[in-house]
Amino acid sequence: MMVGVNGGMAETMAEEKELFWELLASLQKKLFNFLYKALNFSEDSQDLYQEVVIRAWRYFPSFDRQRNFSSWIFAIAHNEIKKYFSGRKEDQKVIPLALLAVEPAAPSAEDPAVALIYGAARQLPLRQREIFFLFYYNRFSVAEIAVICGLRQGNVKFILNRGREAVRQILEAPHEK
Known about the structure:
The protein has one domain: PhyR, sigma-like (SL) domain (Butyryl-CoA Dehydrogenase, subunit A, domain 3, Up-down Bundle), CATH 1.20.140.160. By secondary structure, it is mostly helical. It contains eight helices and no strands.
């Protein structure tokens, strides 16, 4: 690509950078919280967040402006989560409820019942946990989650239903003291 007389390429790069950060600004908290919950509240979520932003920036020039930026970057996050967990099966084990804090990791004004449900959802296997939080916390539709995760909508509904049922069973189980 050639640079124009008035530095056209430099202007285009600056405009791309400004547009990218503008689009990302409204999603930063949701994206980080999604990663944080998907990694089961691990400190590695900060590193993974940076990887997602770097990868998104790298591929932003090829981003189709007709698509939804939110779905696109969450799809990148989903792929990074899959990479993170590949070969790390021990991280996907269910954690006993007694070892989990019921409160959300970060202080919030959430209803205590919601905090209890999120605490139970933390025990779900990765795919169920990811879809559960995309739907309930991040408020993505089933169709958007299907795009993000590369699944059919029916599969998303099935996984979401299984996750709900598992959370219900966890919450109904007698608590050990």
